[in-house]
Amino acid sequence: MQLTLHEACEPLALILGEWRGAGSGHYPTIEDFEYTEEVIIGHSGKPFLTYGQKTKNAANGEPLHSEQGFLRLIGGVRLELVLAQPSGIVEIHEGSFASNESACVINLESIRVGTTPTAKSVQRVHRLLRVEGDTLTYDVSMAAIGLSMQHHLAATLKREEK
Ligand code: HEM
After folding, report:
1. Nearest by Cα to 152 from 139, 161, 134
2. How close is the Cα of 130 to the center of ligand 1, in Å?
3. Is 30 part of a structural domain of the chain?
4. Less crowded by CB within 10 Å, the N or C end of the chain?
């Protein structure tokens, strides 16, 4: 059955699809790394988008980080993101976006980060995502392991299917 996109999600219709690409990561406490990534952004006809992401080590193809979440659109202007990671980290974000027919910028700031008892400590996360045509780029910064907010990830993905 073909689901109709909820009207609340229409301003973000241009981020829907299957995206694949590559990124690089760093943080003062770890070795720099390169990764490949798949992101699937979908919908169920309700006023939120579904988000699933998987990454692999670019050097040897082994699975790295992955995450699953929901992006809620509130009143046509605000965003709320809930996101869970198998590393025991849960992010709750508030944010905003600006979009037109071909481009969109999404800015998300964590209002809470939860960690399981054995997860690495993460205090805050900032996510900035841009879509222009069939190109998606993002940056993720975090305050973690007792350090101040700083860059962890940047990636560029191409839309392969809508
Ligand atoms: C594309 C997504 C991501 C990839 C590919 C990635 C990859 C990595 C890698 C390879 C490491 C070093 C080895 C390790 O500790 O496992 C690492 C460390 C870490 N990452 Fe990420 N990461 C991603 C997203 C995130 C996000 C969203 C967060 C926070 C919410 C995060 C938090 C951390 C933390 C806290 C560490 C440990 C730093 C330390 O031990 O000093 N990562 N990440």
Report:
1. 139
2. 21
3. yes
4. N
